[in-house]
Amino acid sequence: MSVIRFALATVAMLVLAAPVHAEDAKKADKAAKGAAKKQAEALDTVFMFPKVVEPSEEQKTKLAALRTELGPKLTEAQKAVATVLTPEQRQIRRDTTKANKDAGLKGKEARAAVMAAMKLTDEQMKSLDTAEKAQAEVRKGIDEKILALLTDEQKAKVAEAKKLAKKKKDK
Prior knowledge:
There is one protein chain. By secondary structure, the chain is mainly alpha-helical. It has helices at 2-46, 57-84, 87-103, 107-118, 122-148, 152-170. Helix 2 (57-84) packs antiparallel against helix 5 (122-148). The chain is extended.
C-alpha cells in the first residue's frame, strides 16, 4: 500500500512540476532569442553599405558572405569589451551615453564623461583600452572590405557625402 502511495505522490509531483519547468524553459528560450536578435541587429548596423550607395545584388551577396566570415570576429571583440565592465558599469555607460546624447555632447567630451562616470580601476582601464583597440581593428578591416566591394562611381558618392558631412560639421 505504501508503495502505491509513493508512486502516486511521485507522479503527482511530476505532473505539478512539469508546467513550471516548461515555463522556465520558455523564459530562458525567449531571453536567448532576444539576445540573439539584439546581436543580429548590432551586426546589421556594421555590415551595411553607406546610405548614399545603392548596391547591386552581387554586392549584397558578397556583403552577406563578408558578414558570415567576419561577424563572429566582431562579436568576440564586442564580448571582450563587455567582459571588462561589471553589470553596474555597463548600465552606467548606457545611462551616461544617453544623457550625453540628450545634452548634445559628442566626441572626446562625451567619452570623458562616460569614462569618469564608470569609475574604472587602473586594471580595467588597461583591459578596456586593449579590448577597444582590438575591436577597432576588426571594424576597420570590415569597413575596408566593404569599401573594396564598391565601384569607383559608388566610392565617389561616398567621398562626396563625407565632404558634405564635414562641411556641415565645421559650420
